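Fold this sequence, please.
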Amino acid sequence: MTRIFVDADACPVKEEAARVAMRHGLSVIYVSNAWMRLPDGEKVERVLVPDGPDAADDWIAQRAVKGDIVVTQDILLASRALKAGARAIGNTGKPFTEASIGMALAMRELSQHLRETGEGGSYNASFSKANRSAFLQALEQAVQDIRRGR
């Protein structure tokens, strides 16, 4: 049975993930290293992991399997999810795929290098209603594709 794992720390689409999961009778598992207010529901699970770098990512990566969906903005977690056969979707609705993850990892490395050398800015675009809508559409599509065996 498909499960939706949400890398919940700083995730702006927690409610949306729960809505899609409930509509399809799927479990949604929120993983974070701090207590936070989350949607309630019969198939909603909350997992608190210890503080530490990548603790939530490691917990998710160790459990996500083929047929599951991982919601994250973390490119390294998305890569690990894809290697396990799961699907990965960013908070803005951008699906990570085998075809796109290599470029995403390369851009992450480049951006990190530029920040470390003082040449890169730290601009983060604000999260918009269009991002929320794109996420809902991408998550719905991923669930439908899994159900249809695609």
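Helices lie at 14-24, 55-63, 75-83, 98-116, 129-147. The chain has a mean pLDDT of 89.
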